[in-house]
Structure formats: structure tokens, C-alpha cells
Amino acid sequence: MSLIRDTWDVSKEMLSLSSEIKAGPRTDRDKLSQILSEISDLLNDVYIKMKQKIYPRTQCNRLSDLCNDLFESSQHLVGEEKARTLSDQLQYALKNSERTFEDFVTEKISYMEIQQLEEASGKFKACSVIIN
Length: 132
Description:
This protein has helices spanning 3-16, 18-22, 26-51, 57-78, 80-95, 97-105, 111-131. By secondary structure, the protein is an all-alpha fold.
């Protein structure tokens, strides 16, 4: 798997869970909404940096830190198992960020594929807005 595919998959799954999350307690939703918004902003920064062929180390490190926050804030809304799966999948994706960047710079993956990071960012932002 890769940073792009796994991140996109997590964003798609979070968006599909938004109705379930929306039914949860307001304070839990607010916290998760804030984390999803931050993930969205950071993913957009990752996309911009990669597009410029600059490795987004700071953004990837911060995203990695947010994986635990994602788990903590979503487990009461979607269940511990689903929250752990999504958090772990995002964490795994970030471990592949250097490889993805290298593949992009050496043109093993295309600009179109990198754009999926921007799409994932949008899905996280949409989920953040829907649940808030």
C-alpha cells in the first residue's frame, strides 16, 4: 500500500461514517471534527509540497502524531475496533511517505496519483463539517 491509496481509503471511510458519527455526543464530535480538520489541512500541505517536489517531513510527522488523537477521539463514536483500524491504516500510510515521495520524484507515480492526496484532504474536511 502507499501513502496515497491508504490515506484516500481512510478519508473515504471516515466520510462514509459521518452519519453514524453525527449521532454521537456533541463534545466528542467537536473534538473529532477539529482533528479531522487539522488532518485535512496537513494533507493539503503534503500535496502542495509533493507537487513542488519538496519532501513534507514536518507535515508527515505531525500527521503521524495525530493518528493517536484520531483513535482517541473516534473510538466512542465508531467503536474501538473501527477507530483502531482507521488510525493504524493512516499511520501505516505515513510510514510510506518517503517511498511515495521518491516514486513521484522519479516519475514512478504520476501527478494525477498525487492529486488523490488533495481529494483525501477534501474528504476529511467534508467529514469535519458534516459532523460538526
